[in-house]
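Problem: given the chain below (353 residues), write out its structure.
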Amino acid sequence: MAKQWLWRLVQTAAGIWLLASLVFVLSHLGPVQGADVLLPTAGDLNTAATPGSFAQREATRRAVQRRLGLDQPVFYVSWQSATDTAGGYWRWHGLPNQYHSWLLRTVHGDWGTSLSSREPVTTQLWQAVVYTFPLVVITLLFTLLLAWQLAEQLAARPWWQPLMQTALTGLQALPLFAIALALLLLLANPEVVAWFPPYGLGQTTPTDVGWGPWLSSYAYHAILPAVSLMLSVLPAVTLQLAGALRNELAQPYTATAYAKGLSQPQVIRRHALRNALLPSLTQLTDLLPTLVAGTLVVEVVFALPGMGRLLVQAATTRDYPLLVGGVLLIGTARLLALLLADALYKWADPRIR
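Solution.
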């Protein structure tokens, strides 16, 4: 068993490394490089439309490339087009390349420096994760608890199924941004009901006001984003679990449980629920990456300084080190969720062990 888990960890680490490597290489092969982002404009150079402006810009570009290490090849090998023929050849560059330098720094905990803010990438990611991680965890817990209760009610009360299934199906058809905007306009609008703040989180830090006031402010500002995320993923989880429960309640072993004198809630919780979880475990592990992706929408709508908003800004400004670091962090969460799925399967079904 220990060897099996060790092998799974090795596979997960290899997947994370391949994902980060692919994002790094693709970002550095794009038409706009990191040096282009840092180049001053013609107005900054005060050389607009002058003969020496192009030469000065190219000199600045080469200086920025040397400072960032972008004058080296991107990878160990590259495809070189032949000048005199229509073909080409692969050229080996060796260890002095951008990917090798980035990999060594990443292994040692240095994820690079943001091109736009000139702050360490790890510092910016940590500042964003402080806002995103509690939001995702709280939404995940409340979604699972509410989906469990609704699925039990749908499986135990057939007369309630048509109305509830119609409501959940209609809610599932709504995009996340529509749900978030509706909650924002209805519950954070002074012209309707201003029960919750529409923005303002991130203006203070725990060092400014203390952890107690900061946590209360965070909880107050995170209610609408958390409800938006929960409403967007709740229908799929509930309908899947309710269908699995109905299928299990039709099996012969539940008739035996009823014959022993167990009530319907006892049959569901002691017998049917554990078997119904098996087809739903994969969906539950997909729930974590879905919520992480959904934070991109709610953090933009509610102006939260989290991971989603940070990655949007990084993509807009072509801040490749920050973008690669964010993708590496989210990819790690995704692959760890798949590893969690294996553990949950073995816990729920002893036959897999």
